[in-house]
Design goal:
With about 425 residues, the protein is an alpha+beta fold. The protein has two domains: about 190 residues, no CATH class; about 200 residues, no CATH class. It is built from 18 helices and twelve strands. The strands form two sheets. The protein has a six-stranded mixed barrel, surrounded by four helices. It has a two-stranded antiparallel sheet with strand order 2-10. A hairpin with a 4-residue loop joins strand 3 and strand 4. Helix 2 packs across helix 14, helix 2 runs antiparallel to helix 16 and helix 12 packs across helix 14. The longest helix has about 40 residues. The two termini are about 35 Å apart.
């Protein structure tokens, strides 16, 4: 099959001849600019997507996909029947009641304000990843604390320590975050005092309520905010401590598709009635994920400037080709080539540069992300991650490639138009 002459002529203009080495060098620089722009865009978007999904995984590992509460109050009654109704909603995998309160915890060396969650240890494993996040202890120890005869760091015991341990074993259990345990200076078997500012009324004022708990577990979610400000006790102990009776704060729900959580939340509201409010995880963390989405969009727009800079090289290269090839253009026009055909010749040059740069830039971006993900490590105790999370979305790659080719094509319009309007008589006058 014979190729159109526009393609043959256009490709020949990109090749180096003895008197055209400068044009060939500019062509190489233009391709290199597109390549680096595409690789930088793919690398940046892959890293930002990886961080977003890593953050999303850590959030959903600690909190449920949907939170159901009674409108206008934090005390939900009849929650056992509500749990059964919710679990009959399509796409709901599991649900569990919880209690949410802000309290103070005190140890021998520190005081810290935290969020205390009362949970059912058996149901909690079905809606969150708390069990897998535990570094020390077991979730079942909340209701049945084991006997801690000595701290894990000691090899010997004394009668005094043994007696103290037995008294601690009678206390209810509490699970705290890794950072919180560092701040309070506690470990498994140590005692914490939970202080609620809302307590019984006296003749003059309200007195705080204080109760000791034994540390039975330490978790690490990978989120500093959670690890430094969350603590868990059993649902029954929370109801007794806060005097809630048979009520809870709400019900946490796990669904089979986190991206359909909003639609499932609407179904739950329709099932339970207008007296209940169901909020999905994206709504609960709206500010955070909106900021991440905006940041990714702005980084895409900013890094497109790299490709725009490369497009100026394309304009310069084609302009030089037009100036060098005035005689050839005039001959083509004298032989019957239309202005549209001349434009297609030079447009082809820019599109070829864009295609070659994109074809090289995409695997280069993948290679960069592979090296970042596998060979750039961190101290997890300092940064909470051991390596940079990376995830490449095919749609992002398509958008990057399409934008690079489109910018390359747009850069050819002016030089091509200049070549198309060239007067063959003026070009051949002095030949």
């Amino acid at each position: 099959m014979t190729l159109p002459y526009e393609i043959l002529v256009g490709l020949r203009y990109l090749k180096a001849k003895r008197r055209q080495r400068t044009i060939s060098l500019n062509t190489f620089i233009s391709i290199a600019g597109i390549t680096l722009g595409v690789a930088a865009l793919i690398g940046t978007l892959g890293i930002m997507t990886g961080f977003k999904e890593d953050l999303q995984t850590k959030i959903l590992g600690t909190t449920a996909h949907i939170i159901v509460q009674e409108r206008g109050t934090n005390d939900m009654k009849g929650y056992a029947d509500l749990v059964k109704q919710i679990e009959h909603v399509p796409d709901v995998l599991a649900s569990a009641p919880f209690i949410f309160k802000q309290i103070l915890v005190t140890s021998k060396t520190a005081v810290q304000g935290v969020v205390l969650r009362g949970i059912d240890p058996q149901l909690e494993t079905q809606v969150t990843d708390l069990q897998s996040n535990l570094k020390f202890g077991e979730l079942a120890h909340l209701e049945h604390p084991p006997e801690f005869l000595t701290p894990p760091t000691l090899n010997a015991t004394s009668p005094e320590k043994s007696e103290g341990s037995q008294s601690k074993n009678k206390l209810p259990g509490i699970i705290v975050g890794k950072e919180l345990s560092f701040r309070l200076g506690v470990f498994l078997g140590d005692t914490l005092n939970v202080v609620s500012p809302v307590g019984p009324m006296t003749s003059f004022t309200m007195t705080p309520k204080i109760r000791p708990f034994t540390v039975v577990g330490i978790f690490e979610s990978g989120m500093f905010e959670y690890d430094s400000s969350l603590a868990y006790i059993s649902l029954r102990e929370a109801q007794n401590f806060f005097g809630l009776g048979d009520t809870v704060t709400g019900i946490q729900v796990k669904v089979n598709d986190v991206f359909l959580a909003q639609d499932i939340a609407h179904r739950i509201e329709a099932t339970l009635g207008t007296g209940y409010l169901a909020r999905d995880w994206m709504q609960l963390n709206r500010n955070l994920f909106s900021a991440l989405k905006m940041e990714k969009t702005m980084m895409f727009l900013l890094l497109v400037l790299i490709t725009l800079v490369a497009s100026f090289n394309i304009v310069g290269t084609l302009t030089m080709i037009v100036n060098e090839k005035q005689r050839e253009i005039a001959i083509l026009k004298a032989m019957g080539a239309t202005p549209q055909a001349i434009m297609r010749i030079f447009m082809l040059n820019g599109v070829v540069i864009g295609l070659v740069g994109t074809a090289i830039g995409i695997p280069l971006g993948y290679t960069f992300l592979y090296l970042i993900e596998n060979y750039w490590t961190f101290d997890a105790s300092v940064y909470y991650i051991s390596k940079i999370p990376v995830h490449i979305i095919p749609l992002d790659v398509i958008m990057v490639g399409a934008s690079a080719i489109l910018i390359s094509f747009a850069a050819t319009l002016y030089p091509s138009w200049q070549a198309a309007k060239l007067d063959p008589v003026s070009a051949l006058r002095y030949e």
